[in-house]
Amino acid sequence: MPSSLRETLLRDEGLHLKPYRDSRGFLTIGVGRCLETKGISMAEAEMLLDNDLREAFRVADHLPWITDLDEPRRNVIYNMAFNLGVQGVLGFTKTLELVKQGRYVEAAAEMLRSEWAKQVGNRSERLALQMESGLWR
Q1: Phi and psi of 61, rounded to 5°?
Q2: Which of 7, 57, 97, 133 lies 20 to 30 A from 105 at CA?
Q3: pLDDT tier, 3 (very low <50, low <70, confident <90, very high otherwise)
Q4: Burial zone of 96 (CB within 10 Å; 0-12 exposed, 13-18 middle, 19+ buried)
């Protein structure tokens, strides 16, 4: 028997960690949070961003040499990990090897030859320039 409103709502609404359509067809997540009518707050968006950044930073667990890069170049890899997931960015084996060797112009060109570059457009061009130059873009 539920002993709080929280427990009752969890029972009645259920817990959904991925978006779903509720009984009226509204996109919903969590415990009955209607994304279409309520959305999320700024604090919730920042919390999600912080969680996603922590996940992106885990790329360093697989690339210990990343800490030797200057901040702008290191953040190119983090940005890509944020977008693609850690495993996705680890699939850029040639690019990452070129970065590790300090061959940034070639690494940037390799980034731009990828399917990812076609998908994200200007983002890839900006990040490739940042990788090449070591300057924030």
Answers
A1: -65, -30
A2: 57
A3: confident
A4: buried
Across 71-77, average pLDDT: 98
The residues pairing with 28 across neighbouring beta strands, listed in sequence order, are 20, 34
Q: How far apart are CA 135 and CA 122, in angstroms?
A: 16
Mind listing the pLDDT tens digit for each residue in 76-133? 999 999 999 999 999 999 999 999 999 999 999 999 999 999 999 999 999 999 999 9
Asked whether residue 106 is domain-assigned, the answer is yes
Angle between helices 104-112 and 122-133 (to 10 degrees): 170
pTM (2 d.p.): 0.88
Query: How high is the pLDDT of residue 55?
Result: 96
Looking at residue 54, what DSSP letter applies? H
**Closest of 65, 53, 133 to residue 97, by C-alpha:** 65
C-alpha span between 19 and 34 (Å, rounded): 9
Clarify whether residues 51 and 22 are in a common domain. no
Q: How many domains does the chain have?
A: 2
Q: What are phi and psi of 29, to 5 degrees?
A: -150, 165
